[in-house]
Amino acid sequence: MQILPFYLVCDESGSMNGAPIDSINTALPDLHHEISTNPTVADKTRFCLIGFSDDAKVLQPLVDLSDIDSLPALAAGGLTSYGDAFRTLLRCIEADVTALKAEGHDVYRPVAFFLSDGSPTDDGWQQAHKELVEARYGPKIIAFGIGEAEAATIGHVANFRAFMQQDTSVSPAQALREFAASLTRSIVRSANSIPADGGGGFDLAVDETVPGFSTVSLDKL
């Protein structure tokens, strides 16, 4: 079996309280339903949810979404710290890929969706990010910035695509709903492109544009 692990790494800082967190928590059941009820998607993907603020925690270990009834909710609190999020993500990916391979699966390069609404408050997070992207199983990172997130930081975090919420386009709540819808579409579309015989590759065809977001160039800080 060919498996694509994907990770939602979401800022749970204090400024996410209210509409942003509520939007994600509202969207997660929709994402769960879309993936778990599509046999092709459920068979080909595994999902992990990581929340971070002052530290990082795995809210949902890597799982076939058809095997669980619901996803845990995010809860805001603390400051925006990136380093622990990148270190936790790397540890998860290394353990998850090792386990999947031990089960006899082929594993495609993991994909991480990194969502933040502010600037990192921790020193040295760039080193943790460097170790993540240069690791053997370093993921494709699609970064989304909302609220007070800085475009330069979001563009540095991403190594595949980066998006910023447009200031006057939509509210953070609406933007996050668009993000969740885009994520679901991308997985469904990508998985459904796999030949019926199971041959060929599987790579997440992420939207080049996301309603409510503008594209950010991938720049170094």
Give a verbal description of the structure.
- It comes from Streptomyces ficellus.
- Pfam families: VWA.
- This is VWA domain-containing protein.
- InterPro entries: VWF_A, vWFA_dom_sf.
- This protein is α/β, with parallel strands linked by helices.
- The chain has one domain: Rossmann fold, CATH 3.40.50.
- The chain contains 6 helices and 8 strands, in the order βααββαββαβαβαβ.
- Strands 1, 2, 3, 4, 5, 6, 7 and 8 form an 8-stranded mixed β-sheet that branches.
- The longest helix has 21 residues.
- It is globular.
- The N and C termini lie far apart (39 Å).
Query: Which percent bin holds the helix content?
Result: 25-40%
CATH third-tier fold name? Rossmann fold
What is the H-and-E element order? Answer: EHHEEHEEHEHEHE
Q: Note the overall shape.
A: globular
What would CATH call the architecture?
A: 3-Layer(aba) Sandwich
Number of discrete helical segments:
6
Could you tell me the strand content as a percent range? 15-25%
Number of strands: 8
- Rg over CA atoms, rounded to whole Å, is 16 Å
Main β-sheet: number of strands, strand sense, barrel status? 8 strands, mixed
Q: What is the CATH homologous superfamily assignment?
A: von Willebrand factor, type A domain
Q: What is the total domain count?
A: 1
Class based on secondary structure composition and strand pairing? alpha/beta
Unreliably modeled segments: none
InterPro entries: VWF_A, vWFA_dom_sf
Protein name: VWA domain-containing protein
